[in-house]
Amino acid sequence: MALFEYAPAPESRSVVDIKPSYGLFINGEFVDPTDGGALKSINPASEEVLAEVAEAGAGDVDRAVRAARAAYEKVWGPMPGRDRAKYLFRIARLIQERGRELAVLESLDNGKPIRESRDVDIPLVAAYFFYYAGWADKLPYAGFGSDPRPLGVAGQVIPWNFPLLMLAWKIAPALAAGNTVVLKPAETTPLTALLFAEICQQAELPAGVVNIVTGAGDTGRAVVTHPGVDKVAFTGSTEVGRGIAKAIAGTRKKLTLELGGKAANIVFDDAPIDQAVEGIVNGIFFNQGHVCCAGSRLLVQESVYDAVLESLKRRMARLRVGDPLDKNIDIGAINSAAQLERIRTLSEIGAQEGAERWSPPCELPDRGFWFAPTIFTGVSQAHRIAREEIFGPVLSVLTFRTPAEAVEKANNTPYGLSAGVWTDKGSRILWMADRLRAGVVWANTFNKFDPTSPFGGYKESGYGREGGRHGLEAYLDV
Ligand code: NAP
Ligand code: MG
């Protein structure tokens, strides 16, 4: 099958020094939890335990919120924006300097290919810190009045799919605007957030400005419901997001939610097919499909269906699945046993509902959590695999005849985070973008991120925007 064999090209894991156990990062120091237990973070590619991390209980979260409050009132809130900027620029530079270490740790803890953590995640993390560092002394010119004020203490909860990038999306704008934060990383991917805590120490960020409380769902609940938190920012599933919105309804807390998606990637008959196929592959197999804005529903115009499918299958047969630290790997490990189970279940349902399943021949490692890149054809809009977020390397393929039908099918979802359009005609791109109910519409590309560009959803994909000038609004009293 293969054109030629690749020799292994492993990135060295010795560039990162993982401690056997980590405490909570509260008030500038690593401390033991007082009322919580411990969790183990594993490498999903080998199931090897990487480190033990503390599980913060309600008392620990309270300590973190108090530390954040004190830092907000005494140090960070009163500090001139130009001084806050210096710290943020320092953090951004340290992220670049320690980029290799961060990339290896991210791939070990999450399972994503080193090619992606090295070339996408970590450079974007640095870019978001640089970008918001630039805003810190220019808030009066951001369009929110001549003296916009911060909100206070932000409680932030993030998922496991882009651990450090989601941290950057949360922490960089919050600090630039003058808030302090208590952040809870996901249970399965806490390690880069803890390395980030070390970077905060290295940058001599004042104690209490950033606090990292590791733990599971209960820790997240304690963060968002703490009465000392002024602003809640959550990225994760729609189900948990809905629970958070209910839990804090009626309080004065401001809330932004970045939730799930089921994006349509729409290929018209005048699109350059090879380029579109690269975009389809990037849209659904990037990061094992653990992407909220993944192009998980492919809509192909009927007249080019056969050509697109043939080319897509040929391309998929070239994807390499395996050791995330190998520099020639395209698809790494599924993040957890639980997520693998969910992908398997929904895929079985897809087959039972009558869709046709196809994967290229592909050898999967024995240990760890793996799922071969998969497509379903003959999918109807009623199928669960066309409606529910699978959050894995599984693509549902549908067809359409007219642009109006493409719009109708694309919008026929409870979500509205992103969409992709592939066509040669600029006028059609604009016509589609006007009608697609999605926060981001990519044209002849997919999964492109930039700190200057706002990102967020319609409908059940959440509310509020992260990134760009809009991303500051969530952290200012406007
Ligand atoms: P999740 O279960 O909702 O978890 C997200 C975070 O919330 C985790 O840190 C989780 O802790 C925590 N959590 C769980 N229950 C909680 C509760 N009751 N109160 C407060 N926090 C709680 O989501 P996931 O399954 O890990 O992540 C995948 C989802 O995230 C997908 O639906 C995806 O679309 C969405 N996502 C959206 C975006 C976006 O920008 N829109 C970006 C990335 C991912 P544990 O880790 O311990 O469960
Ligand atoms: Mg979870």
Automatic annotation (TrEMBL):
GO terms for molecular function: oxidoreductase activity, acting on the aldehyde or oxo group of donors, NAD or NADP as acceptor. PROSITE patterns: ALDEHYDE_DEHYDR_GLU. It holds the Pfam family Aldedh. The keyword Lipoprotein does not apply. Keywords: Oxidoreductase. The keyword Oxidoreductase applies. The active site is at residue 258. Gene3D superfamilies: Aldehyde Dehydrogenase, Chain A, domain 1 (3.40.605.10), Aldehyde Dehydrogenase, Chain A, domain 2 (3.40.309.10). Residues 31-477 form the Aldehyde dehydrogenase domain. It comes from the Bacteria. Belongs to the aldehyde dehydrogenase family. PANTHER family: ALDEHYDE DEHYDROGENASE-RELATED. This is Aldehyde dehydrogenase (Acceptor). It comes from Micromonospora pattaloongensis.
